[in-house]
Amino acid sequence: MKIQHFFLTLLFFSSQVILAQVALPHIFSDHMVLQRNDEVKIWGWAGTGEELVLTTSWDSKEYNVKTPITAQWEVVVNTPEAGGPYQVNVKGRDSEVVLKDILIGEVWVCSGQSNMEWSATTAAGIDNAQEEIDQANYPKIRLFTVPRRTSEFPQDDLPGNWEVCSPETMKSFSAVGYFFARRLQKELNIPIGLIDNAWGGTPAEVWATKSVFDENEDLNADAQSLQETPWSPVTPSFLYNGMVHAITPFKIAGTIWYQGESNVNRHSRYTKLFSEMVASWRNAWGYEFPFYFVQIAPYKYDVPEVGAYLRDAQRRAEQNIPNSGMVVVSDIATVNDIHPPNKQDVGLRLGNLALKQTYGSYDGEVRGPLYKSHEIKGKTVELTFDHSEGLMAKDKKPTHFEIASADGTWHEAKAKIKDGKILLSSKEVKEPTKVRFGWGNIAEPNLFNEAGLPASAFITE
After folding, report:
1. Separation in Å, CA 133 to CA 128, 168, 169, 178, 397
2. Rounded distance, CA 455 to CA 337, Å?
3. Beta bridge pairs of residue 165
């Protein structure tokens, strides 16, 4: 009994020593980027009742905190203008954590499915892969990759660590994310931090919080009907729980998103699902950060028109989601490959969108023409677009326009540009009722604005 009591006592004191060790989530590591000019939360774990001192080198300020009964502590620090490198020290009674080479700048999350996850060395890679890899020396860009991870319940931590952008680290990181960060870093001349938690093949349902499905019976019914796949999980909220929730206390500037291919067969509710998903993320973070996303590219899906429906659902979602923006990439598609290798233009378009809308440092047009309204004048339909300055058809007259007749039959329309508007007519249609544009899985229309950005597919109500 005495020996047993001795080992129990030893186990008790050993557990107390372990609990007393100061620990931080993996999102805090050497080389990280913290959001500039902001109140930033730093948190972790230590022994219950332990008194900690956190010191930030940029202002030599000390923050004192006592760990509550939950054993989790948190401190809100004030960050300066962009710069670095800096250091953060967290000192407890018997242990200390020192974080080095910290930069202060702008932090963005890169999420979605395979076209966001795609790197310079994934499968077929990207355009000019080796050249881009060789030139990827950007010490002011820092990269954090979240490993694939599912969970039934929201997690407080996730694996990973921050890395300095170099040819070695860039080559396996999100190519779209890298090109986005490079655009921002060159224009703003400040550090950029990227957190990549994309997973190829994933439907939007796995990224939304549980509350989205608790509060929307229709979305829950769709989510529960998803069939298992060999390439990604389909259980609602499992990736939010495993790959998002743990970083929601970490202050970010915004999110870029590229997803939708896995939802084409459930396009009818995608506008609502995506809008609710974005709202659930913002609710988790506690503020309405910018959310910029990519409209899926034309691709030869097995079921006719599903790609067009999904692209239109994304167009409508942009109208529903405040502080958002969508980039169109129909002109850089590869209709026989769902992974277009031109990831640089995707990143650049997202970057320009952020530079204009979030940072106010870019004066050019960042969106392609977007359907605004239409007016039926006898046999002719007059279309008006937003972002239509210099509206033009490359090489020839505008293509991929259709008009519906009174019986609902669609007919190819003759289109011409006049005074910045599109005029449509068809010999087969005496009484036009509706219009659609770019309406096909592999449709690659030729309508652009003077910035060289393509028009989005749409169908009128």
Report:
1. 9, 8, 9, 11, 40
2. 21
3. 138
The DSSP line for 344-356 is HHHHHHHHHHHHH
**What tokens appear for 414 in the block?**
């003759």
Question: Residue 267 in contact with residue 307, Cβ under 8 Å?
Answer: no
Q: What is the pLDDT of residues 251-295, one digit of tens each?
A: 999 999 999 999 999 999 999 999 999 999 999 999 999 999 999
Q: Encode pLDDT of 364-399 as tens digits.
A: 999 999 999 999 999 999 999 999 999 999 988 999
Distance CA 48, CA 71 (A): 5
Tell whether the torsion through CA atoms of 241, 246, 248 and 252 is positive or negative. negative
> Could you tell me which residues are beta bridge partners of residue 97?
90
Cα gap 245→295, rounded to integer Å: 25
Among the listed residues 111, 112, 133, the one whose alpha carbon sits nearest the alpha carbon of residue 122: 133
Do 250 and 101 meet the contact criterion of CB atoms below 8 Å apart? no
Residue 64 to residue 367: CA distance in whole angstroms: 47
Please choose, from the candidates 214, 250, 203, 266, the residue with its C-alpha nearest in 3D space to the C-alpha of residue 24: 250
Residue 75 DSSP one-character state: E
Please name each of the domains of the chain with its CATH number.
2-102 (2.60.40.10), 105-357 (3.40.50.1110), 370-459 (2.40.10)
Q: Report strand pairing: 96-112 vs 33-35.
A: parallel
- Residue 203's closest CA among 263, 119, 247, 274? 263
Question: Is 225 exposed, middle or buried, given 0-12, 13-18 or 19+ CB atoms closer than 10 A?
Answer: exposed
Residues in contact with 279: Cβ distance below 8 Å, sequence separation at least 6, in sequence order: 321
Q: Are strands 138-145 and 192-196 parallel, antiparallel or unpaired?
A: parallel
85 preceded by a cis bond (ω within 30 of 0): yes
Q: Please state whether the predicted TM-score (pTM) of the whole model is above 0.85.
A: yes
